[in-house]
Batch of 4 targets.
Target 1
Amino acid sequence: TCTATHLMSAVTVWLPVYWLAANVKALSAVVSVATVFALWWVIPRALKLPSPAQLEVQRSTAQYARSLIEASLDPLVVISLEGKITDLNKATEQVTGKSRSELIGTAFSEYFTEPDKARDGYQQVLLIGSVTNYPLAIRHRDGHITDVLYNASLYRDEAGKESGVFIAARNVTELNKAEKALLALKNDLENRVIERTGDLEAVNKDLESFSYSVSHDLRAPLRAIDGFSLMLLEDYGNKLDDEGKRLLNVVRNNMGLASAGATSQ
């Protein structure tokens, strides 16, 4: 309208169309007033807009955050409140065997071997804000399975409104294999201990039987030795010196101990 006003000023030099020039100036005045009121509303909001430098910082921050997400070896997924995948990293593509374009917009639970269990975990996040070490398994498009621990938390926008769920599915396939191998080794060792214990019990029984047999067979000879020693002391004691008597008594005492041991066996 400002341009039209200047143009009409030039036109009226040759043509006396003052009525048209007046109307154009009136229109320009109306637009100017409207612009004032518009600026009254726009300027405060414009002043709140980030500057180019702030926009560059935000862009750099977002790029850095994205680099961290992509650098993670664990699958990371952002899910909407409706349960649809809205963002993901390269590790998620690798563990599912599907591209980013195939995954975006699909239900997150369909890639787990137990979709209902995955959805239950998701509902827990919505109710209490997070879940930790929730065991699940992801199915690759070629069929192989990856065991994971599902860690998820609710995230909010700048206004504090719930925006979705962020999911840290940690690959524990190798850990589970190691635990199974360790359990198998433990069971094998326990079986070996039970087997060896049985063998030792059998050996002990054999030793007990052998000891009983030996003790039983020694009773008669021991009694005979003890009896003859006593007869020797009684019948020929007066012909023996003190040392001879002492030695015979030592024999008798030892026979008595041996006989008592054999009896107890």
Target 2
Amino acid sequence: MIVDSHYHYMTAMSKKGAAEMVGMLFAEAQKMGGNPDYDTMLQTAVRTWADPLADRLIENMDEAGVDVTVAVNVDDIAIRTFTPEVIDRQNRMLGEALRRHPGRLVGLAGIDPRRPEAAQMAGICMEEYGLAGVKYHPDHGFDPAGADSYRVLEVLARHRGILLSHTGPLMPRGRSKFADPLMLSDIAVDFPEIRVIAAHSGGYIHWRPWAALAAYQAPLYGDLAVWDTLACRNYPLFCRQLREVIDLAGEEKILFGTDGPVQSLLYPVKTMIGFVRDLPEKAPPDIRFTREEVNRILGANAAAVFGLPTHSRPA
């Protein structure tokens, strides 16, 4: 079973909206030794990222062999066009996409906890739209365990929901101090009912604080979204760091994620899956991975976190 635990659902995409993200991807492609064409990348993003019915996502999942995708929305109160009505519509449409593709998608609402109506929005998303929890981007400038957030976390706790919260450094305008994995530490103390996933596991540069925390906090997990850039640039280092993550945090704490469709502008999801699937055969001789660890990371762990039925297809 393969589960993509981190995918960005988008109802619309403008050229201006795509430009900033494509700029980061263009720079990353250059670092990886490629010869990217910015205009082509931008045109592809504008043409393909918007997928309000999630039909294109399902086609891509079938092509890559992904059984279930966790699709997330993103909210940022600082963006003027992100009114409460717009965010509610996006979250409602995500719920409709889940119903359109039963058994293939899990949804997490985009809610900025600084909104006065954030707690009410969270309740509606879970009770009426069928979403499983909330996606945070604290790098937008808020404490994920602050007073505003706690109003939303109380709702998640009542519903035994899931919080996926960005962790790891970002370029400006991202306020990376709020994305330190240790900012999540109080949540397990005050809301042990909530399963918390640290998106990117702190990043493949700053993963150690997450791994140290996850080793002691049962409800804390992490995904590997964007770790594929390290795998592409330096596969032996990717293997070494992932081995250390498993040894420190535990193999049951790590979830596969793509950060698609953004990250998949660099290479196909099949390639991302291959970086993990091929670990037992392609890791350096002094680094060992078992097939059970790979199967857990690619899907079994996420199935346990999200309460998914398991499938028989091996990784």
Target 3
Amino acid sequence: MLIRVPKGTQDILPEDISKWYYIEGIIKEILNKYGYKEIRTPFFEYTDLFVRGIGESTDIVTKEMFTFPDRKGRSLTLRPEGTAPVVRAYLENSMGRISKVIKLFYIGPMFRCEKPQAGRFRQFNQFGIEIIGTKSPATDAEVIITALDVYKKLGLKNLEILINSVGCKKCRFDYIQKLKKYLKDKKELLCSDCKMRYEKNPLRVFDCKKDGCQKIIEKAPLITENLCRECESHFAQVKSYLDDQKIVFHEDPRLVRGFDYYTKTAFEIISGELGAQNAIAGGGRYDDLVEELGGKPTPAVGFAAGIERMIIAIDQQKVKWPEEKGLDIFVAKVDEKNKDSAFKLLQTIRNAGLSADMDYSEGSLKSQMRVANKLGVKYTVIVGEEELSKNMVVLRNMQTKEQKEIKIDNLINELT
């Protein structure tokens, strides 16, 4: 029986990998321009990092994490998101001593046990940025502008920015009391998940996508009407920075994101090309997370974006991918007794800095030329007994079909 790829995962085949290289190259180009440095964290962490960081009542922690014990019984989890591991690394490596403000980015796979659908996988790839050490509203605006710069460079259009403020500990406590009061006599109408959320973190009710719960929260009190003066001022400044840069956004007072660590600014960037799973980036401020994970109170802000969804959006908008660079040279042998000479010449060409390959099967010269055409090479070097006796090879231009004999000693100069 054939073993297949696990549900919710996918193979990225050679014909598609150039898209990933292209996107990752654009991401690194833009983030380097903004002064971010790359960080790479382990694919798995101790489970408590995500329980404490993301929140024990969130869907990710309660339903979606891949968690398993190690041989000593310690609970480990494949990382479902990138921010908590980055903050853990920031603290463990005392990165705050290097600079008061640290700007980091990451690219890599994340893991969530979700129901697979278009744009949603159990192993998926994200890139994200984190600015740790400043409470400036300008950095909230910067992370949004940075994401948009990446999408602009990739040619994506028709993107919508949704923005909200989810307040801070100071004003959120009073708001949650108001929300619980509103939901109290409607509790029995809530779904089973939202009944649990009501007890543990009522703000999570806004995450529910079920119609019954959506109707109930339509008339719920809004957190933006209950912000403290500091949060209100911060939100106004973020919007002002975006306005100054002519960034069009829409306020969504019910946007809370799926993590408990958010404070003040929360945002999503959505694409109309993706159907139900339309968010291609999301993030916000998380001023309490560093302290929650054992550090001193340290403000921070960031975002994460799914790469698979970016690829879908690019394809849907019919943005042209750059052409993949093919091999420079193909080495063909007239017959098998020339294979050693062909291989030696192949390595000489590679050592000169050119990309080159040959057909290692025992195919005819005609079949080798078909391989060369398929690879899209510029030139084919044909190695034959008659030419070798004169210390020569045949150089064929694959575009013009012209060919000529050339001395082996002059081949590299001719090619370069």
Target 4
Amino acid sequence: MALQDFIALLDAWGVTDVLIPFILVFTIVFAVLQKTKILGDGKKNYNVMVALVMALAVVIPHIVGRY
């Protein structure tokens, strides 16, 4: 019962609507940028910023309700 309550609490906080898609998109975009080295070799800060913007561009319209 405690696990079910914890999962319901996380769902009430919006983890399934906001946090999980953000982490998923950020991780995939960052990994692709790191692997392909599109922005240059050793440009981790740029890759993080691009992945952050892409993840926010996916999650924010979902939160606001404007697709």
